[in-house]
Design goal:
57% of the residues lie in helices and 5% in strands. With 409 residues, the chain is mainly alpha-helical.
């Protein structure tokens, strides 16, 4: 869209500014969305460090946590980018690309956590308390490493702990992320993704259900977040995902405005103190969760406008930072790192997580992406032109478990 339009006025021509839309602001090859993901991944580490280091609780206004805000941002970005992928690929290729982006690194993380990180923690604690530390005791224990990997292999976290310690409370949101992928895949397969009003009606329907459950608290589930609270969790996360999807679908009609971004952020901040909803994000829907779809616009706006587009443009370490930060922070506990205060514990968590994130990208994620052009049943089918680094690289311990990274491509 042109930045300016020329219109006649009394026989003369005058130049007036045109309205700039989201479609004008989003450059698939030159944006800072990877930077936004990295910032939110660091927010996740900060959130975990407060909780796991026993420095208190990172609640904001007793309605949300730092990690929860990060995950909502992740899901908003994901909804925008995944809608683009679903629209431009066949259903088979779309699902294939979603699988190779999430599963290989996820599977390796399960194995590294179970047979490496958790074993080191178990062995060190055993020596501290003079307990038996023969490896067979660990590997053959009930709810041991083999059970952990097998029970969680298909993305749904059914076993959080290895023996008696929770070693990765971050992975749980990947299951809900993948459900959102399937939702968009179904919409694309049926042709409904191209009918914007249908997607808008779906978003409004889901959001109204969430609003009713938030305001009328007896309707909320209070059974916890470890597998029995799936409807509540999917409800609050999918509505943010759909908000990002709608911004993509209406990108030619939604204004690109910093004032709109500021207004949305203000709405989220106000929601932290609204007097309805619960005040325990783990088990109750809160006012902030209800207003979370407002986060999608400002997070995307920042991703379109921040100037540091080179951050993560070729190598995206944010997924690895997310999936490994929790077990790393758990491991640091028995070694006494939390005894030195929060700043050092947070810094050490980041320092020890980065090598694992780098290795995950170079050894697992990047090689897996080389197979993204293959289409099940149609190996020779053409692929849509690459949209740049976002396409290649493409969100919370809320109180459900922890803030979660949501990889895109």
């Amino acid at each position: 869209m042109a930045d300016r339009l020329t219109q006649p006025s009394g026989g003369d021509e005058r130049t007036v500014p045109s309205k700039r839309m989201v479609i004008d602001a989003f450059d698939p090859r030159n944006n800072s969305l990877n930077l936004m993901r990295l910032i939110m991944a660091v927010m996740v580490v900060a959130s975990h460090s407060i909780d796991l280091g026993l420095f208190g609780k990172d609640w904001i206004g007793r309605r949300a946590t730092i990690g929860q805000i990060a995950v909502f941002g992740f899901f908003g970005i994901s909804g925008f980018l995944i809608a683009r992928s679903a629209e431009s690929n066949s259903t088979g290729r779309y699902l294939w690309q979603r699988c190779i982006r999430i599963f290989p690194a996820y599977w390796v993380c399960l194995i590294v956590t179970a047979f490496g990180i958790a074993f080191l923690g178990w062995w060190h604690v055993g020596h501290l308390f003079h307990l038996p530390t023969h490896p067979s005791t660990y590997f053959h224990a009930p709810n041991g490493p083999f059970d952990y990997v097998l029970h969680n292999w298909f993305l749904k976290i059914d076993q959080y702990a290895i023996i008696s310690t929770v070693w990765n409370g971050s992975l749980w949101t990947l299951f809900y992320e993948f459900l959102c992928y399937l939702l968009l895949g179904a919409l694309a397969l049926t042709g409904l993704l191209r009918r914007r009003l249908v997607v808008l009606a779906l978003f409004l329907g889901v959001w109204c259900i969430e609003a009713a459950c938030t305001i009328h608290r007896p309707w909320q589930s209070t059974t916890g977040a470890t597998g029995t609270n799936d409807p509540k969790i999917f409800l609050e996360l999918s509505v943010v995902f759909l908000a990002g999807t709608l911004i993509y679908l209406y990108r030619d009609q939604i204004r690109d405005s910093g004032w709109i971004a500021l207004a949305c952020i203000t709405g989220v901040v106000v929601s932290l103190w609204l007097p309805f909803g619960g005040n325990k994000p783990a088990v109750t829907l809160t006012s902030t969760e209800l207003f979370a779809p407002l986060l999608a616009y400002p997070v995307l706006w920042l991703g379109f406008h921040l100037p540091w587009t080179s951050v993560g443009s070729k190598n995206d370490y944010s997924y690895g930072v997310y999936i490994y930060s929790y077990p790393v922070a758990i491991l640091l506990g028995p070694y006494g790192m939390a005894d030195h205060g929060y700043p050092l514990f947070f810094a050490m968590s980041m320092l020890c997580t980065i090598p694992l994130a780098v290795a995950s990208w170079w050894l697992i994620e990047r090689p897996a992406l080389k197979f993204r052009r293959w289409t099940p049943g149609r190996p020779d089918a053409p692929i849509a032109p690459s949209a740049g680094p976002v396409e290649v690289n493409a969100a919370v311990h809320t109180s459900h478990g922890s803030a979660a990274m949501t990889p895109q491509q």
